[in-house]
Specification:
The protein is mainly alpha-helical. It has one domain: Cytochrome Bc1 Complex, Chain D, domain 2 (Orthogonal Bundle). Helix content is about 40%, strand content about 5%. It contains four helices and two strands. Strands 1-2 form a two-stranded antiparallel ribbon. Strand 1 and strand 2 form a beta hairpin. Helix 1 crosses helix 4 and helix 3 packs across helix 4. The radius of gyration is 14 Å and the shape is globular. The protein starts with 11 loop residues before the first helix and ends in a 13-residue tail after the last helix. About 25% of the residues are buried.
Amino acid sequence: MNTSTAGLPLTETVILGKHVWERNSCINCHTLHGEGAYFAPELGNVMTRWGVYDDPEGAFETMKGWMEAMPTGIEGRRQMPQFNLTDEEIKGLAEFLRWADHTDTQGWPPNDAG
């Protein structure tokens, strides 16, 4: 039974994205709804921040651009590794994060910056 507190359905693509999240240990750097590490940004509302909350294709394109640009090589900045994800994995991760962004978090995070 696929029961969810999110406003989006728990699809196979969302499930794939959760597996990508887990396999690459994203939570070791990022938080998701306040759970995880504080090295990198909170991602529970990243799709809202990126303006693609209700735009699956835009979410994929934005995530793909971000992932492919990493690491930036800017000295003195925290760097995200290059994970060499496939388009299918990036789409899954984008849909997982859109799904997470549609979860009723009762006001968390307390501001748009996460």
